Input
Amino acid sequence: MSKRILIADDALVMRMMLRDILEAAGYEIAGEAGDKQETVDQYNKLKPDLALVDIVLDSNILYGGIRAIEEIKKSDPDARIIIISAVNQKKLLEEARKIGINSYISKPFEEEEVLSAVKNILGE
Output
């Protein structure tokens, strides 16, 4: 059975890129989310093996991705999460590490970087 992954990014094109990379590698996309609340709701509903979450996620909520991860970790402390971050978001990355992300991927990312991080977190 393939591992199930939730992709959360407010940019549709980023979700599509990640979906293509992950599906080509044999992963199942459990769902997608485009904002903070949808990410939390989808995670709690779908219980994926892993979530890829954009650090900003929602331009209407300050630190939307961070806030989504905080809520997910409250309901599932063992949640496996990889944050997606632009290089200039070092401060947010530090905050994300404090709340328990497992790894991060920098934008723009390469296919190999995504798959390496996913395989590492899933123990493959």
Notes: The radius of gyration is 13 Å. Residues 4-122 form a domain with the Rossmann fold fold (CATH 3.40.50.2300). The mean pLDDT is 88.
